[in-house]
Automatic annotation (TrEMBL):
PANTHER family: REGULATORY PROTEIN RECX FAMILY PROTEIN. Residues 11-47 form the RecX first three-helical domain. The lineage of its organism: Bacteria, Pseudomonadati, Pseudomonadota, Gammaproteobacteria, Oceanospirillales. This is Regulatory protein RecX. Its main location: cytoplasm. It comes from the Bacteria. Pfam families: RecX_HTH1, RecX_HTH2, RecX_HTH3. Modulates RecA activity. HAMAP family: RecX.
Amino acid sequence: MFSSNADASTRDVAIQLLARREYSRAELARKLQQRSFEADDIDACLDALAEQSLQSDTRFAESFVRSRIARGQGVIRIKGELRQRGVDQETLSEALAAVEEREAIDWFELAKETLARRYDSPGETPKERAKRERFLATRGFNFEQIRYALSCL
């Protein structure tokens, strides 16, 4: 996967990782720690990468939000996953707002489309309806969005 050179620098490994996809600073730090680099070296490397705009939590968060919207995930789940990846609340909120504005995201319509891809009716029985509600809830949609999506099928 990576070069077998045991002398690979912290920066070399970080660049190899970033060449594949965007990473949050926390994810990148964790990956570098797993490769037994020193904490001071990791911090210095990540600071340098951020200064050079090679690593950006803002860019990572926006990319992540767009990819999750394309998968039909709601804001609750997206926020939770970004927090797990070490993105702070301010960066997370700014990224969500930027993507929502730039791409005119309507969470209610996204919930409706996500539900319609899986189911063709709102469910005949309360049990079937509850199954659809759970499906959308695990996708990260709130109660109002779920209710709207079910009313549109």
